[in-house]
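Review session, final week

We close the course with one last complete record, chosen because it touches almost every idea we covered. It is 2-oxoglutarate dehydrogenase E1 component, a protein from Spiribacter salilacus with 941 residues. Go through it on your own first, then we will talk.
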Amino acid sequence: MSGAFEQFLQNSYLNGSNATYIEALYENYLSDPDSVEPVWQEYFRDLQAKEPGRLRDVPHGPIREAFEALGRSSRNGRAVLAGEGMDAMAAQKQAAVLRLINGYRVRGHQHADTDPLHLRELPVVPDLDPAFHGLDESDMDTAFNTGSLFAPDRMKLREIIDLVRSVYSGKIGSEYMHITDTDRKRWIQERLEKPRARTEFDAEQKRALLRRLTAAEGIEKYLNSKYVGQKRFSLEGGESTIPVLDEIIQRGGRHGVKELVLGMAHRGRLNVLINVMGKSPAELFAEFEGEHAPEHANAGDVKYHMGYSSDIQTDGGALHLALAFNPSHLEIVNPVVEGSVRARMQRRGDATGESVLPLLIHGDAAMAGQGVVMETFQLSQARGFYTGGTVHLVINNQIGFTTSNPLDTRSTFYCTEVAKMVQAPIFHVNGDDPEAVLFVTQLAMDYRREFHSDVVIDLICYRRHGHNEADEPSATQPVMYQKIKARPSVRKLYAEQLEQEGVIAADDAKAMEREYRDAMDAEQVVAPGALPPQQTDFSVDWSPYFDAQWDESVDTAVTPDRVRRLQEVLQQLPEGFELNARVATVMESRRKMAAGALAMDWGFAETMAYATLLEEGYNVRLTGQDSGRGTFFHRNSVLHNATDGATHTPLKQIGEEPDNFVVIDSLLSEEAVLGFEYGYATADPTTMVIWEGQFGDFVNGAQVLIDQFIASGETKWGRLCGLTLYLPHGYEGQGPEHSSARLERFLQLCAESNIQVVVPSTPAQFFHMIRRQMLRRWRKPLVVMTPKSLLRHKLSTSVLDDLATGGFQLVIDEVEPIKASGVKRVVLCSGKVYFDLLEERRRQERDDVAIVRVEQLYPFPEAALSALLKRRYKTAKEVVWCQEEPKNQGAWYQIYHHLTQCVTREQKLRYAGRDPSASPAVGYAKVHHEQQRSLVADALG
């Protein structure tokens, strides 16, 4: 304990009767350390240090006993507060006032008037009752110290209560006291308490707000009358969303934001497209009439899933808006948006998100119910995934996904509880008070700018119709919909308010409605500030990639001299950097591989592929749960100093900037991280974006991304994407969850040359495959069944010359000196099983069986394989497809139709492999080895 506090004790008059007062100070300290005097802060810190755990976990019994002992040991019976004397009763009353203020800061939101329909009874919150703190009517006109409240130093209790009620239990309910950073809490308190949670808007601002509400309501009425009965998933009941988005765009522009990426589900999407993004009404009408399809898309999608991009004029200049395409999987778009934002930040050299803003619009039930929301929040501050803070807007219809009771859609009071995991402030606001809504929007945008962290606006409103316009929600929600039918729209309520205030005349609101309807009839663009498409230095031209073909020829070869030169750079370590012994052995082996003195392994070939791409001006981004080292200790792209743990990434020494190569050990998520990387790849065609599964089996945790985005995004939306997936795959006797990357599922999704599925069998093939992915103009997802045991297999190696000649081979013919004329059987296979077949054939000394590897399973290389089977091996009578996977899995059923086109009429096509199974693999090593032996024997005959 310092001398300052000791002196404070010597000069104070404390006794046991003041324990309540001191405990109240301590409670205030727990909520906000700055709310008490510095000497008390020091004393409470010392007390807390004697109790292990966090501040909020300290038992109050020992603390209370310490206060009482402190009082008993004091010299006499007077207490002081900040040096100002007061008797014991006055001290207790003052402490009670401070507790009451704190009670409103912590729990005032529970009594806030945020629900336009008043569906729930307010919970009993004793902390908000002055009587709970020992205060009554006789205290109301007594002046008290306001503590840390942003108000005059002393106010009457009646005035204090009026202030905290208006701020914390008015039309806005603020949750921020869960934030541990005192500076952030104090910043929010100042922004809430000084203006009493209101903004004074002038008459023109109020008229502009009414015009935006008129637009929000107007498009819904217009579409309802023009296209009766068609689904549009209207925004009616939540029209305040449109002013929120306008304010975010304009305030963002003033803050320096140049790009905004928006993700939202279907509800209100058409309204946003027309009124915010500036989509032509004529284009929307054509979609309703079935006469419009997106450019470069084949199948298209429903109109309320479509994305859009535009440019909007703000006070800070043009701001580019991009609305992400989104299927009906609601929140799945969240990580996709974040990945797109990160790519745009990278392109701009924007490390903190000053110029690019992610905005996510959530539904209440979806935000509470879907796990990808939590995973995306978890990404928000993680290295490699940080996007400078996301603004989250919840359109809280209070009715869940169809017509369910909100109590059935979650276990929490609010749908936004998940945001507290990253200490995001949450502002609940009544959607029928548009001025309060704008105040909260300004506060949220300023918080994001100040702290570069996530912030949540919970816009509590309602849904005027059911799940869609043909629904009858009153069948299941009669009470709610009686209230909704009797309630005027927010536009009507606000118009009446402005008329009473004298801001508008009696007919002005009707005139605004007619003006908007006339604009729709004329098919005019109605979004404020809409600009023609703007080209900047940061715009991406995707046109060179649209007419590319998968089989276009590219030169992926690299000379040995270039390999050696690059390897010398990669071998250079910082001074005093000491490698782990095993890693040092890997690095020495790579030195020998570059010199041609040692056969090349997979880790070396992969590293060289990245190094050459970086040198040629491409970027490389690799993420996964163990990507820096590699799950199988094969990559070692991030080196760790054995003495102090410092890291060194050799590939960052190649290329113009260190950030041109990024490798991240991601958090334990498949869905959100894969979605993030997909979003990144759709925004940047010049970066080799790779997501790696720790084991390929785990990719099924991201199946929605695969089905709805990776496999079908181009066909539905015309979105190109060069994302690469590394999925370790191979049967090693490790059981059903460490064997199969579910090759059959990817092949089932193949059509229209939408993705590539590759199973490389040598390091050189891997090298050329990586380079081909970037050097070709063809930007399609690449799914790679990567090896496990092959990484160090004695037969699965390459030599330096393999990098200097040729390229990626779609089909690899027999490599041993076997006469084609003597071949009676051709075994076709992919992946690791080839080496099992090769070793067994060598053991049997067979020369009548040829083994051919199909390295690319889609697009299937029919021409190359047909040439081998119908010409070189035309005398063979049998063609066998051999695979490790069970018959109902793997490639067999998915490529059978291709194989039948490649064989002659005289050749019999059959299968060799495991029997059909509901499980991907057996869990017993002995059974595995017997199955493997059997399928190899069957294939060779």
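Two points worth writing down before the exam:
DSSP finds 33 helices and 27 strands in the chain.
Confidence is low (pLDDT under 50) at residues 52-59, 61-84.
Good luck, everyone.
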